[in-house]
Specification:
5-stranded antiparallel sheet; 10 helices; globular; 2 domains
């Protein structure tokens, strides 16, 4: 049985991070929370205790409202009861934007506390290590068995990533889609695809693109780990990786084992993140929208964090999208990724053209935008 050595890190959330759990666990208006328009807070209440406080008539009205899908009216009934007994509210989260139906819930443990799953971080590291192996071996496909071995001798089994406990009550952030290459702007130049589009905001599920940002229209609300949230991360690498692999394992992975174990993976991850941010900057330059000029400042700040001594930035969860996980090794350019298709029929649009944006309100009522999902990992002294 393999022995493992622990490596400790500090984790800092740089932008809202949403890691989804089961859809049935999402928060529902009237069943889990109501919105206080005066304080601009989402109020999460103790459901069983609230129901006990209802009179028979109130309970009948409440049940009928929920059954009919009249969620705001059901929430009003709850708010009235909680107004009389404030202790029925166990959590309040400020957010100046009101949602009408549900909030996607961040994954939580059995006690209801949000955390950062080790499996999510390990997935990001798997992509990073896989790309590194591809670069070293000249492979151009990300096949699990080729890069990491079969299930009984898989390289990633020799890395353990613990869950990250966090001291936070979370935050509510709306997410909106920013899209490049909308409308009919695909040009053919021989066999070379060229895109001449403008970045647009998506305001409805079908079509509905607009030049200017609108806080309403096709917005998803998520419970997130807010910026500045901190926690401790532990990675465990198996000792003597080369001997643990044995003769069954492919030789190219044996050669790079010492280059990724311990803290060594951080140099590889840092280089790949810098490449990713450069490619994303090119995307926003290609599909520029002056209404979202702030994105370049955000990307530059992320580059500074990623280049700090003893630190690296990863992108996780909602908003990381195709390019942060797969496209960053498959495509050298995030604006030239082929034509999108609809059930096998090519359409006049670039593949992987959308980006998720989170937004909030500053103290001076100005909007603040985030590229969601970024965390900074520092070596813990």
């Amino acid at each position: 049985m393999a022995a493992f050595t622990n490596f400790n890190y500090k984790v800092e959330v740089l932008s809202p991070v949403y890691i989804g759990g089961a859809k049935e666990n999402d928060y529902a208006l009237g069943e889990d929370y109501f919105f206080d328009r005066e304080t601009k807070e989402y109020c999460f209440f103790k459901k069983r205790e609230v129901v006990k406080r209802f009179t028979a008539q109130q309970f009948s009205q409440y049940a009928n409202k929920l059954a009919a899908g009249l969620l705001p009216e059901a929430a009003q009934l709850v708010a009235q009861v909680c107004g009389q007994s404030p202790k029925l509210i166990f959590k309040k989260l400020f957010c100046p934007f009101e949602v009408q139906d549900n909030i996607k819930r961040h994954i939580a443990d059995g006690l209801g506390k949000t955390y950062l799953p080790g499996s999510t971080i390990k997935g990001a590291l798997r992509s990073i290590i896989g790309k590194y192996i591809m670069q070293k071996t000249g492979k151009n496909e990300f096949r699990e068995v080729d890069l990491f071995g079969k299930i009984d001798n898989n390289f990633m089994r020799l890395l353990q990533v613990a869950d990250v406990a966090l001291d936070t009550k979370g935050g509510i952030y709306p997410f909106k889609i920013y899209s490049g290459d909308v409308a009919d702007n695909l040009l053919l130049n021989g066999t070379q695809l060229q895109y001449a589009g403008e970045g647009m905001w998506k305001h409805s599920r079908v079509g509905g693109h607009g030049e200017y940002f609108d806080e309403k229209g096709f917005v998803t609300f998520c419970e997130c780990l807010p910026p500045t949230t901190r926690g401790n991360l532990r990675l465990n690498w198996a000792d003597d990786l080369k001997n643990l692999f044995g003769p069954r394992y492919s030789t190219h992975n044996l050669a790079i084992s010492s280059q990724v174990e311990g803290h060594n993976w951080m140099a590889i991850a840092g280089e790949q993140m810098n490449n990713y941010l450069t490619q994303e900057k090119a995307f926003y330059e290609k599909f520029y929208n002056e209404d979202f000029d702030d994105v370049f400042r955000i990307l530059e700040e992320l580059e500074r964090h990623n280049n700090d001594q003893g630190a690296v930035v990863l992108r996780l969860g909602q908003g990381s999208g195709y390019h942060a996980i797969t496209g960053n090794w498959k495509y050298a350019d995030h604006t030239q990724t082929g034509r999108a298709d609809n059930r096998g029929i090519p359409i006049n649009a670039i593949k992987y053209k959308t980006r998720k944006m989170a937004f909030h309100e500053k103290n001076n009522a100005e909007l603040e935008f985030f590229l969601p999902g970024f965390v900074k990992i520092n070596i813990s002294e």
